[in-house]
Specification:
The radius of gyration is 16 Å and the shape is elongated. It is built from 5 helices and 4 strands, in the order E-E-E-E-H-H-H-H-H. With about 120 residues, it is mainly alpha-helical. It has one domain: lambda repressor-like DNA-binding domains (434 Repressor (Amino-terminal Domain), Orthogonal Bundle).
Length: about 120
């Protein structure tokens, strides 16, 4: 599980939390296609969260592959070590798509966007 800056829990995008059931009437739970759909107010917000989380996971995997310390990764990415820590801890709410694209580009990657019907 991931934590946001306020200490409230955010749920993992995959795994046992991929389908969240919530609602006031516990006998008739509301079902969601993904955790992002459950925590976002709109489908647009859910799509943005999903895209940021996916990009963060790919960047984190690349950093792990290089075997860098957080400080080394920060220098390569042009950000601070606490920023890399936030990324590695999955703190999605602290990153915009722009910031993540900049980090990926600093690592020598090209970011592509794919569109598909919902």
């Amino acid at each position: 599980m991931l934590q946001d800056p306020s200490g409230e829990e955010e749920l993992a995008a995959e795994g046992p939390y991929s389908s969240i059931h919530t609602g006031h009437d516990m006998s008739k739970p509301e079902s969601y296609a993904s955790v992002w759909d459950a925590i976002a107010d709109t489908p647009e917000q859910a799509a943005n969260l999903r895209a940021r989380a996916e990009l963060m996971q790919k960047i984190a995997a690349l950093l792990k592959q290089h075997g860098w310390t957080q400080g080394e990764a920060a220098r390569c990415c042009g950000v601070t070590q606490p920023r890399i820590n936030d990324l590695l801890r999955g703190r999605v709410s602290r990153f915009s798509l722009d910031a993540l694209v900049n980090i990926a580009t600093a690592l020598g990657c090209r970011v592509r966007v794919d569109l598909e019907a919902a």
